[in-house]
Amino acid sequence: MEFKPFGWRHFEANVPEDWGLTKEGGSKGQGFFQLEDRYNVRMEVAWQYAPFEKAPDPYETFNNYVKDLGKKMKKLKLPEPALVKKEEYEVYGHEGMHGLFKAGIWVNSTYIWYCEIMEKMFTLTLLHKVDEEFNDIERQIVESIKCHYKPGEKALWTMYKMGVRIPADFYLVSARFTTGLSYILWRNKEEQQVLLSVFYAPFSSRILRDFGSVDKLLNKFVKKDILGKYAKFGKIKSEEKKLNGLRGHEFSSSIMTFSFDRIMLKGYLFVNEKDRLLGALIVFPKKKYGEKAQKTIKNVLNQLLSHT
Predict the structure, then answer these.
(1) What DSSP letter does each residue of 44-77 carry, written as one string?
(2) How confident is the model over 18-55, as pLDDT tens digits?
(3) CA distances from 296 to 44, 86, 148, 268 (A)
(4) 130 pLDDT exceeds 80?
(5) Residues 143-170, mean pLDDT to the nearest whole number
(6) For the whole model, what pTM was predicted?
(7) Are 96 and 112 in contact (CB under 8 A)?
(8) pLDDT, tens digit, for every residue of 187-222?
(9) Distance CA 83, CA 294 (A)
């Protein structure tokens, strides 16, 4: 079986190639995401913020999980899962617990641990059928988990089959995944005026035909859909450019703040030979973040180009 690196909300692991993100939600305090194959939910990662001085005990949290799972199944009028295995287990250097549950034809393998660096209690749930060969898949996933990053490391974010690594001080603001234009938007934790985004469409010819032109796409989708709630720019201007041999556009805009610092928008959009539209942009205060922004967007752009 082929595996791929998958990352979302500062959590990453190697997962089977045909698993994809189908559901996610949360806030700074708590959240979750799910991965599915063609038939079922296969993996869920959930977390709850807990300050280090009040760090919960994974053993106690696991026991509460067992009780809550039983109540949930009873409420849904489903068979209560039988706990067939319970053991201490270390995940990415953190002490935790592992339990194996069986209910009918399904097996639920759950890992619970506390990451003192991120100050989060994590719950990983993997689901498979009783007669399914899953041990090697589970071992590959669990042994490849990263729930925190060391200084200087970049966090992996996966959109469909594409992955980009960005500085770990960016956090998710919004995201949209559709059969048309999809995007991810991040904000910098330390410099709140800095926004970073990547966007994607599988059928660029159809998308561009629907919008009428690249400029119309930029001034509706980028200006309104991606940035509308977070940065109010005037008209976005673009010019054609060749990017690593690909037909593309460089686009920009700017606004002046009350502090007389110009907020810049700079981005790139290109179409590859597979009819995919790929784009990246960054919003930044010119005086404070100009040089750093140029390095960041070029790095992201090079990663996107590697998927062509």
Answers:
(1) EEEEEE--GGGPPPHHHHHHHHHHHHHHHHHHTT
(2) 999 999 988 778 999 999 999 999 999 999 999 999 98
(3) 31, 45, 21, 13
(4) yes
(5) 93
(6) 0.91
(7) yes
(8) 999 999 999 999 999 888 899 999 999 999 999 999
(9) 53
Please, what sign has the CA dihedral across residues 101, 105, 130, 158? negative
Q: What is the pLDDT of residues 156-167, one digit of tens each?
A: 999 887 899 999
From residue 24, how far is each of 27, 31, 116, 172, 249 by CA, in Å? 11, 8, 23, 11, 32
Q: What does the chain come to in residues? A: 308
How many angstroms separate the Cα of 184 from the Cα of each of 128, 134, 227? 30, 32, 11
- Two tokens at 231? 């940065």
CA 170 to chain centre: 11
> Residue type at 231?
A
Structure tokens at 149: 């990053």
